[in-house]
Amino acid sequence: xxxxxxxxxxxxxxxxxxxxxxxxxxxxxxxxxxxxxxxxxxxxxxxxxxxxxxxxxxxxxxxxxxxxxxxxxxxxxxxxxxxxxxxxxxxxxxxxxxxxxxxxxxxxxxxxxxxxxxxxxxxxxxxxxxxxxxxxxxxxx
Amino acid sequence: xxxxxxxxxxxxxxxxxxxxxxxxxxxxxxxxxxxxxxxxxxxxxxxxxxxxxxxxxxxxxxxxxxxxxxxxxxxxxxxxxxxxxxxxxxxxxxxxxxxxxxxxxxxxxxxxxxxxxxxxxxxxxxxxxxxxxxxxxxxxxxxxxxxxxxxxxxxxxxxxxxxxxxxxxxxxxxxxxxxxxxxxxxxxxxxxxxxxxxxxxxxxxxxxxxxxxxxxxxxxxxxxxxxxxxxxxxxxxxxxxxxxxxxxxxxxxxxxxxxxxxxxxxxxxxxxxxxxxxxxxxxxxxxxxxxxxxxxxxxxxxxxxxxxxx
Lengths: 141, 310
Ligand SMILES: Nc1nc2c(ncn2[C@@H]2O[C@H](COP(=O)(O)OP(=O)(O)O)[C@@H](O)[C@H]2O)c(=O)[nH]1
Ligand SMILES: [Mg+2]
Description:
The structure holds two protein chains of two kinds. Chain A is an alpha/beta fold.
């Protein structure tokens, strides 16, 4: 277990504004003891990087119901460029299988499809957060 | 990264700032080491508390206030505190949803914090977070408390200046004022003045101010946070106040507020320890009872346990 609650950014990129799913996930992660930073939809990739940095999150969760997950490989590159490689990234929503492979290859840790049990999402995110904390650069030596 | 931590912060390195805030917030020995490394806070960066009931428009008002302050060439850090779930300890932190347009502005830093069980309207670690922010180059630090009612006035011990946000048509607000939250106000904002009979409400607020318990004259400003109306005046008054408090020794005031707060915490803690049957505490108490440990040493042991386990 981590000493302090995992910090998770739950957000949406691209043009799709349906945020019911991401609200439910945010509530489930809260109920699993996490601190969820919740934002409006329609964020740019650069916004997400800045949010992840400023809020010092362990995990970024991107919800995608349309084709916005195709922006995620670009997000992975941008996170790396900002030295945020330790941050875990998960995608939830409607993602076709061949595109899932694309995301995993780009460095996404996990894609959750519709119907994934909330407990499973919470468990995985919490595990990813613990890994991220270990890999994060130490501020004090 | 560590040796020039203070320099990185002063230079405005956001990655370092964000990490340092987490370390400070989490407390314990690491936080102490960090704060020692950073050195004394730069108290010339005023801390402004924004408090008031949930839904009064604090976040929306901060969004407009940040815009006004930016127009006056001030850089701004915002700490927005949301309540934590008493069941899971988790939290959904959504205040920054209302401040989204400032996202790309390098002169603005917004950080969401959970109250982490704190019941005084602020989180336990916010004092330390503010010390980190005062070491970075933001001209002003705004702190949004969780929706505060009557007793959540801990912000007074942390902020140099307090804005209390009230709304019309709410008897609760008047109640809150009578019960003391007005006593911590340096500026009283009557927000949502677009809603019906808001003029009457402002009148009532002014009346409330003339209650004998209230010696200081407090400016009352009407705003409509959703349109920004009145927020320019608020920005002016706030900057005026911050400027004058610098001169009249807010540091002394702040030190005294912190002492008062420490006293209040000690009193609450005593009550809590007697009622709560905390495991560590009971164990140490038992060893005192068995005569294995003198009381002073036992107390020191408990304090060490608590402060190291952040
Ligand atoms: N009509 C009106 N609504 C407002 C005003 N200020 C805020 N609101 C609305 O009040 C609600 C709560 O605002 P928020 O800033 O989240 O309040 P907080 O909980 O105090 O931070 C939102 O729906 C705002 O749009 C105002 O001046 N007039
Ligand atoms: Mg708010």
